[in-house]
Design brief:
Oligomer: heterotrimer
Structural class of chain A: alpha/beta
CATH architecture of chain C: 2-Layer Sandwich
Helix content of chain A: 10-25%
CATH topology of chain C: Mth169, Chain: A
Number of strands of chain A: 11
Structural class of chain C: alpha+beta
Strand content of chain A: 15-25%
Radius of gyration of chain C: 16 Å
CATH superfamily of chain A: Class I glutamine amidotransferase (GATase) domain
Largest sheet of chain C: 3 strands, antiparallel
Shape of chain A: globular
Distance between the termini of chain C: 8 Å
CATH topology of chain A: Rossmann fold
Number of domains of chain C: 1
Strand order of the largest sheet of chain C: 2-1-3
Number of helices of chain A: 6
Largest interface: A-B, 30 and 32 residues
CATH class of chain C: Alpha Beta
Distance between the termini of chain A: 17 Å
């Protein structure tokens, strides 16, 4: 296995796949497509990414149909073996529908799609993704606004029941929070991790903030190799 | 019922007249039978045949060394050099959007995207030109909400960013809104351009994508008719768009084309299978034999006429060599779609339709496609109505400048469109450099790193003042916007929205404005390479403002140091680059309930060198950039343009004396008049002398142009001499909150 | 009194959501003829007369709850 090989999942309706591919290449990784209808060998990849989009048109519930795709069996296996898995936007929705991450993503409070730039704080660092930023955070005040990334979603409002939310707080699984809540997410949550920290996901799009000409480069750290 | 009544009924049903029936009979050598009525109804409709506009469209300037494909194909294609080419087109979906705004707008976006990827280009950007009635008009807020949701619902899901747009409001659109969608697609180096010409006897005709339902049967002929009070009752089954399905269709079609498996390809748009099959045959100078029984149906009880006229979305027609069919089918299957053979190409120039083992029609495709009637509708030489002698007659009546400015910034005509564009994904594709918040959208071309600028044009207040000047402005103004960001305008697409062409005054406006646009395009060397005409935007005798919407694309060597749209640094010199030809009170007058007046004439032969001068000043220069920010002064004049540049924390102080040297007597009134054309520029620190020298050197024979330093950027205040003072924060607040906050409440209520 | 409002896509109109769910179920090896996706609303009303309540809900359905161009609706007392 090449330490730089990154598997990129493609479902029918995934539409940020090529953008994520480009972001991985810009960060020195080796992207490889993984098709929704095929199983794959989880040990062959250094990490996996589930890009954004509208898998299965967001029909029924966002991410619901993709979460039942064949390739998700291999993703689950990878997650159990500790392979780092990153979900972005629709990828986040798929991971919650697959129960690989806690909670659910529901319609924005505004009931509208929202395209904007948001400020994000890193509440807890993830060992595998954007970990370089985490070390900067440690040297700054906790409240420091550390990142600016674009969002573009209609179903981005994170929801978890009270006891679940408390568990997330206690275990340090809340990864990123919004500086100014754009969608009504509970506890301003923009990204979460699983208990072991190898599965992480966020609603904002780091692959759209990779260079100054895109409006910022805070997304770079999500594709650089941590650890 | 007598035979004559029967015939009249039939003509009415198929929206043909006796003269046209005569032509059909003459060309066929017999009377049309059965489904043939439906074929002629669809293909000889205004929508498909351009019968009222073709004689004029033929005269449009449409060639340059960059143009690879133009009218006659699904979209125009322009060569950018370095192996990169783009396909682009704008198209109307006005009538369906008025009936069912969400699906109407959504299928408008879907349709224009298919025109692009059917040529082999990957869609990279969408833009929308929208005209609504007054927000208080019946249904208007629901229409706005539905249209915006429909555009977003389709574009966001299919994964093509919406990067720019224009939204206008006027009572003339109260019962007839305009929804025009533009799409841009990119051919990367090595990608082939695919055309719709059917070729090769024995090749297969392949149907791919969604099944055929009763959606929009008779849609094309309906789009060619004015709305009446009973149009609600006449609705065909609403066409439903499925962006998810379209996404699968994009990926599978591009894959099929990348593997060079098809001979020709066309989407099924207006008049569905009829127009696609007859047009492919006619363009390729061949015939087709189609088995209608083999068309996949959603409802097995559909009749051949319904199958032929269905406007079900997300369907394509392909021509391939028989041995390549299984490879094509495998690709479509992999993406979860179906592809099946429905016919064959034949040498004999006849399209033969088979149904239940019988031939139900045999017609030379040229009769339907090429030989549709062309009408020279009555029109008069152009004479403007609102033209006045001079400045004294163009009064906006504004006295308190600061107050009026704040009200403009919060008014539906002058406020931020963020309520609309925040519902659109502007960055999917990861190429967006500048988005809907800016005057020009910019996409970075991934292979060359160059910038592609996209901007829409046509300002209806100019059209209401004078259709000829408005036609020039519909090209000149967006071209200047591109030039102000350092882009060379390359080509134009247009969507000509007009009222009833059978009325002389409408046709007169059409002819005057289209000729004016063409002249402007010729001077700029920006050919018109694609588009459509939407006539009969008339409801119960009331016609819309003639609205020739345009889409322009431009090219820039790189995307670094592009001038901003707002002031970014205190202490910079502010300049006005002018080419004074005309002035209008237009938008400010209309807001205060007056008729739009103006004087002077726009001169295309002066505007073109002015645009070149502007582009060189702001473009990618080897010696480094000179300009830090730029804005073309538009509707509401200088004060509004300056206020827009004071969007954040940096304001400006404009010296009254400097303005007087160019405007003579300076009044508050004049600050809201639009002088055509003026551009605000700021120099990068330390580059003032170089910028001034560059203008002197480049101006050449353009002696009418002037370049005047009018002030300096300062802290948080906008000051125009003693005439107008306002804190920047209050302007920004008016602009950002404006009527949209109220709009949101009303829509949700 | 509770009244249920079932809103379904009209038969002749393409049901994009139903098509996507149907195809997914088929991919999972399920046999089915068709899947149609609609909406279900439950209205809790202060009314005591069934007839009056039904006619009020019908009016509500016609003004806002369904789009006659693309949908049909049915009422049931719960």
């Amino acid at each position: 296995m090449s330490a730089r090989k990154v598997g990129v999942l493609r479902f029918p309706g995934t539409n940020c796949d090529r953008d994520v591919w480009q972001a991985i290449e810009m960060s020195g990784g080796q992207p490889e497509w993984l098709w929704h209808a095929d199983l794959f060998d989880p040990s062959a990849y250094a990490r996996l990414i589930l890009p954004g989009g509208f898998s299965y048109g967001d029909y029924l519930r966002s991410g619901a149909l993709a979460a039942r795709a064949k390739a998700m069996q291999s993703v689950r296996e990878a997650a159990e073996r500790g392979v780092p898995v990153l979900g972005i936007c629709n990828g986040f929705q798929i991971l919650t529908e697959a129960k690989l991450l806690p909670g659910a993503l529901i319609k924005n409070e505004s009931l509208r799609f929202n395209d904007d730039w948001v400020g994000l704080r890193m509440r807890n660092s993830c060992r595998y993704f954007a970990s370089q930023v985490a070390s900067q955070v440690a040297s700054q005040a906790r409240s420091a606004h550390v990142m600016r990334l674009p969002i573009a979603h209609a179903d981005g409002r994170y929801y978890a029941e009270d006891d679940e939310l408390k568990r997330l707080e206690d275990n340090g699984q809340i990864w990123l929070t919004y500086e100014k809540n754009p969608n009504g997410s509970i506890a301003d949550i923009a990204g979460v991790m699983n208990a072991s920290g190898n599965v992480a996901a966020l609603m904002p799009h780091p692959e759209r903030a990779m260079a100054d000409w895109m409006g910022g480069h805070d997304g770079l750290s999500f594709f650089m190799h941590g650890e | 019922m007598s035979r004559v009544d029967n015939l009249d009924e039939k003509l009415k049903k198929y929206r043909l007249n006796r003269h046209e029936l005569g032509l059909i009979t003459e060309r066929l050598g017999r009377e049309p039978e059965g489904v043939e009525w439906a074929l002629f109804s669809a293909l000889w409709s205004e929508h498909c045949s351009y019968k009222s506009s073709k004689v004029h469209l033929k005269k449009l300037f449409n060639k340059s060394k960059r143009v690879l494909e133009s009218f006659g194909e699904n979209a125009g294609v322009v060569d950018l050099g370095a192996g990169e080419r783009i396909a682009f087109k704008i198209e109307s979906h006005n009538h369906p959007s008025f009936i069912e705004p969400y699906q109407g707008a959504a299928t408008g976006v879907g349709g224009i995207l298919r025109d692009i990827f059917t040529m082999g280009a990957r869609p990279i950007a969408l833009a929308d030109y929208l005209c609504f009635g007054e927000p208080a008009a019946p249904r208007m807020r629901a229409l706005m909400d539905g249209v915006v949701r429909g555009i977003g619902g389709y574009g966001n899901c299919v994964g093509v960013p919406t990067v720019t747009g224009q939204t206008e409001f006027h009572e003339s659109y109260n019962s007839n809104i305009l929804v025009n969608a533009m799409a841009v697609g990119l051919f990367s180096p090595g990608d082939r351009i695919f055309l719709s010409k059917a070729r090769g006897a024995g090749n297969w005709v392949v149907y791919a994508g969604a099944k055929t339902g009763r959606d929009g049967v008779h849609g094309a002929s309906m789009a060619s008719e004015s709305f009446g009070a009973d149009s609600a009752a006449k609705r065909p089954t609403v066409q439903i768009g499925d962006p998810f399905f379209e996404k699968l269709l994009i990926e599978s079609c591009l894959e099929v084309m990348a593997q060079d498996l098809v001979v020709a390809i066309q989407d099924m748009g207006a008049a569905g299978l009829t127009s696609s099959s007859f047009e492919m045959a006619s363009k390729g100078q061949v015939g087709l034999r189609l088995q209608l029984d083999d068309v996949p149906l959603r409802d097995p009880t559909m009749s051949p006429e319904e199958i032929l006229l269905s406007e079900s979305q997300e369907r394509m027609l392909l021509i391939c060599e028989p041995e390549k069919f299984s490879a094509i089918q495998a690709i479509f299957h992999r993406w979860g779609l179906d592809a099946c053979k429905i016919g064959e190409v034949q040498d004999e120039r006849v399209v033969e339709l088979r149904w239940h083992g019988e031939t139900i029609s045999r017609i030379d495709p040229d009769i339907l496609v090429e030989q549709a009637p062309q009408y020279m509708r009555a029109f008069k030489p152009w004479k403007a109505l609102h033209r006045v002698a001079g400045e004294a007659d163009v009064k906006t009546g504004v006295e308190d400048g600061a107050r009026f400015l704040r009200s403009l910034l919060g008014h539906v005509h002058g406020t931020s469109r963020s309520w609309i564009y925040k519902q659109y994904d502007s960055r999917v594709g990861a190429k967006t450099v500048r988005d809907c918040a800016e005057s020009v959208a910019i996409q970075r071309l991934p292979d060359s790193g160059r910038g592609l600028g996209i901007v829409l044009g046509c300002r209806p207040h100019m059209m209401r003042w004078d259709a000829r000047e408005g036609g020039i402005d519909a090209v000149a103004y967006p071209a200047l916007e591109l030039a102000a960001k350092g882009f060379e305008p390359l080509a134009v697409t247009d969507c000509l929205n007009y009222g009833n062409p059978e009325k002389e005054h409408i046709m007169s406006e059409f002819v005057a404005s289209v000729e004016a646009m063409s002249t402007m395009c010729e001077k700029l060397d920006t050919p018109i390479i694609s588009g459509n005409v939407s006539f009969y935007n008339e409801t119960m005798g009331r016609n819309i403002t003639s609205t020739p919407a345009t889409g322009l694309v431009g090219l820039r060597d790189h995307v670094d140091a592009i001038p901003h749209g707002v002031f970014t640094r205190e202490g910079e010199a502010v300049y006005l680059l002018r080419l004074p030809m005309a002035a209008v009170g237009g938008a400010a007058q209309e807001i205060t309930g007056q008729a739009p007046t103006g004087y002077g004439q726009l001169e295309p032969s002066l505007i073109a060198p002015f645009a070149r001068l502007l582009r060189v000043l702001t473009g990618a220069r080897n010696e480094g950039p000179l300009v830090s920010s730029s804005r073309v002064v538009g509707k509401f004049g200088l004060a509004y343009a300056l206020a827009r540049m004071c969007a954040g924390v940096v304001g400006c102080r404009i010296e009254e004396d400097a303005l007087k040297t160019i405007r003579g007597d300076l009044t508050v009134d004049d600050l809201f008049r639009e002088h055509l054309y003026e551009v605000i520029l700021t120099a990068l620190p330390g580059r003032e002398a170089e910028l001034e020298a560059a203008v002197r050197e480049l101006r050449g024979a353009l002696t009418m142009a002037s370049f005047v330093r009018i002030g300096r950027t300062i802290g948080a205040q906008l000051e125009i001499g003693s005439l107008l003072k306002a804190p920047v924060a209050s302007l920004a607040e008016s602009y950002q909150t404006g009527v949209w906050a109220a709009m949101e409440k009303e829509v949700r209520a | 009194m509770k009244i249920g409002v079932k809103v379904m896509p009209r038969k002749e109109v393409l049901d994009t959501q139903g098509r996507a769910v149907e195809n997914t179920l088929r991919e999972h090896g399920q046999k089915l003829n068709q899947c149609t996706v609609g909406r279900y609303l439950v209205l809790d009303l202060p009314d005591e007369e069934v007839e009056a309540a039904m006619s009020r809900v019908r009016a509500m359905a016609e003004t806002v709850l369904y789009n006659p161009l693309i949908e049909t609706f049915e009422l049931e007392r719960l």
